[in-house]
Every structure is written in structure tokens, then in C-alpha cells.
Amino acid sequence: MKNKQFNSVLIVGGGVCGLGIGWRLAQANRPTTVLEQREVGPNSLPAATWASAGMLAPHVEAEPGEERLLPLLLESHARWPAFTQELKEASGVDVGYRTEGTLVVALDRDQVERLRFQYEFQRKLGLELTWLSGDAARQREPHLSRNVIAALYSPHDHQVDNRQVLLALRQAFLAAGGTLREHASVAEILVEKGEAQGVRLISGEILHAPVVVVAAGAWSATLPGLPPEARPPVRPVKGQMLALQTPLDAPLLRHVVWGRDVYLVPRKDGRLLVGATVEEKGFDAQLTAGGVYTLLRRAWEILPGIDEAPIVEMWAGLRPGSRDDAPILGATPVKGLILATGHYRNGILLAPITADAISHLILTGETPESIRNFGIGRFHR
Ligand SMILES: Cc1cc2nc3c(=O)[nH]c(=O)nc-3n(C[C@H](O)[C@H](O)[C@H](O)COP(=O)(O)OP(=O)(O)OC[C@H]3O[C@@H](n4cnc5c(N)ncnc54)[C@H](O)[C@@H]3O)c2cc1C
Questions:
Q1: pLDDT tens string 59-95
Q2: CB-CB contact of 41 with 166 (8 Å)
Q3: Does ligand 1 lie within 6 Å of residue 239's CB atom?
Q4: Of 35, 36, 132, 280, which sits with the fewest C-beta atoms within 10 Å of its C-beta?
Q5: pTM, two decimal places
Q6: Does 342 sit in the ligand 1 pocket, CB within 6 Å?
Q7: Cα–Cα distance between 375 and 367 in angstroms, integer?
């Protein structure tokens, strides 16, 4: 028991980051406990992982100013096929990995100009994208509106069912021998003389461990006990989404489709996700008439065939946004205190590399090259 405590790891947060890291550690026989304040699954909302759209889209989402982040996104993207396979073998859960690719469509001259700028910028980065006429886009997706006058096709921007990923990770983590404690809310990170000691739960229970990982998503900066030099500058960024049901035998879309401030993601079970707003509202996760109306109007402009589709679900989630929109990964000035947070709108895409790199750091003491630029130190220079 003493031994177990001696090298055990506590992970705060049971989202894709916490469970992914936990899975890798449990596979390496490191005693690991994931502490989750709610439940892993539908009741974890407004946590980001359940709320997400599951796009693995580093190419069409590449924006000016994010060039430093791109290699990390691409490296994680390359790990997804093997990650999917391994996760399925470990959990028995199919995570719905789909490779039809992504279309970005333009409906008027302004949008074509913007798309042209995006296309040229992304091509300069060496990303593979094809410019399509409206008709060529409709050959790929016949239900697109006649008003679509141009599009980009990105063959390598894929998707996964993020909810299945979360359930698969939970299963794989448990099967590898990890301990999951749900309804275990961390009230304080315990730090003494510059070293992590463990955590105190809201119930008063104290858990000791020499390694504590903060993977608490949008809540990461609010954890009491974190000294200022180890407190990640993370804030919640609200995203509202909804799901429509489309016929399984006649899906309206096969590709993920992006328009102006909206995207449509077809799932294997006929659900068509429509997302997402980007709102700075603190920890408010209310659905609003304006948010849902705007998403539906924009989706309808691209895909009028959704008119009769039943709305089967609406929800809002909180993205963990860091000050520079890049994740915060790695050791802190507090010995044994590790951060894996701030993944903003790329946390599903970054799940494989986050799990691999942070578990490597914990198991070997070495920070992998791939995450060296993403430590908390960059905010204190
Ligand atoms: C609407 C929306 C759409 C998105 N679309 C995409 C997409 O298409 N592709 C993509 O790659 N990413 C997307 N993202 C982003 C992605 O979902 C997140 O970056 C990722 O899920 C973050 O995972 P996480 O584990 O860090 O956080 P979370 O999933 O939020 O998990 C953190 C967990 O910590 C728990 N926790 C917090 N405080 C405590 C405490 N004190 N004690 C115990 N537990 C605690 C929370 O309950 C929560 O379950 C989207 C996000 C949203 C909201």
C-alpha cells in the first residue's frame, strides 16, 4: 500500500484529457486514480468532451497566428487511426472514425473572397486542399443549396464520435486497472514546500500522491491551492450545439460541412450535429433562443433539406480556452504538479498526443520534444 502511494498518480478531471492520460499510465502499471466531479458520460455536461463535435480538422481550421500550434495538431492527427484501433481493441467500443473529409462552402461573393484567402494561406502551409466550383461541391454533396457557389475540399480533415471516445476511454482505463472516482469533486490541490502532496475532496477526504495532473478543462484555473506560478490561464468559452435526426438510409450529408460560423457533422447513426456558437459568458452554459436560431438559420442556408428534420437534442459546453488558444501541457514549478489543459477547440484532435506526451513525462521525467513549446512557462516569460 505504501508502495502504491509512493508512485501513484491523481488526475483531476475525467474528460478526454484526464482519461486518455490515465489510460496510458494504467497500461504502464502506474497506480492511477481519475477524480471526476460529475459522471463520465451524458451527465458530465457542460464539460467539453461530451459537448464536442469530434472534428479532427487541423487543415481547414488552420488560421493566421496559429502556425506554432499546427505541427502539434498534425502530429496528433496522424496518431488518430492507430489510437482508434487500439481503443477499440481495449474497450470493445467503435468510436465512429470517419474519413470522408470536409467541405468549406461559400454562399456569396464576400464568402468566396474569404475562402480564397483561407485557401491560399493554408496551401502556403503545405496543406492539401482542393478548390471546387459550386457544382463540383454538389457532386460530392447533392443536398447542398443551389446558393453554394464555391467550396474547399479537405480530404484529410476527419471526424470521430467524441461521446463514444469518452465512453471507450472510460472502459479502456478501467480494463487496464485504473481507478475512476465519479462524484469526487476536488476542493483543493495540496502543495507543501513547492511539492505536490495530493488533493482534498469536497467531502473532506484527503488523497496523497506525489504526482497530481490538472486536467479539469474549463475549471482548471479555479482549483484552490494552485500557486500562482502553476495556475493555468484558462477560461470557459461557451459553445451551443444541437442535433437533428436524418434518415439512416438517406443521409443528407457524408462529409463534414463548414459554412460561415456554422458546421454540420453527420454521424453514422443519422444524427446531424449543428454547431457551434463561440461565446465569452463565464461559466454560464444556458441555451439561448438567439444562439440556437442563428445556428439553425445558417445551417438551413447551406442545407435546406434539414427543414423537416426533427431536433433531437440541444446542449451547451465549455471549451477550456487558454490565453493564446494553445494547450498548456507539462510540468510546473511545483514538483509533481502537471498540467494538461487549455485545449480550447482542439481537445479531441489533441487527445492522442496529450495522452502519450503527458504519460511519457510522468513515467520517465522527460518532456517530449513535441510539447516543449506548450508549457506554462511561456506565460511567465
Ligand atoms: C461545442 C464544442 C464543440 C467542440 N468541437 C470540437 C471539435 O470538433 N474537435 C475538437 O478537437 N475539439 C472540439 N471541442 C473542444 C474539446 O471538446 C475540448 O478541448 C476537450 O474536450 C477538452 O477536454 P478536457 O478533458 O480538457 O476537458 P473536459 O471535457 O471539460 O473535462 C474536464 C473534466 O474535469 C471535471 N472537473 C472540473 N473541475 C473538477 C474538480 N474540481 N474536481 C473533479 N473534477 C473536475 C469536469 O467535470 C470535466 O468532466 C469542442 C468543444 C465544445 C464545447
A1: 999 988 888 999 999 999 999 999 999 999 999 999 9
A2: yes
A3: yes
A4: 280
A5: 0.97
A6: no
A7: 10
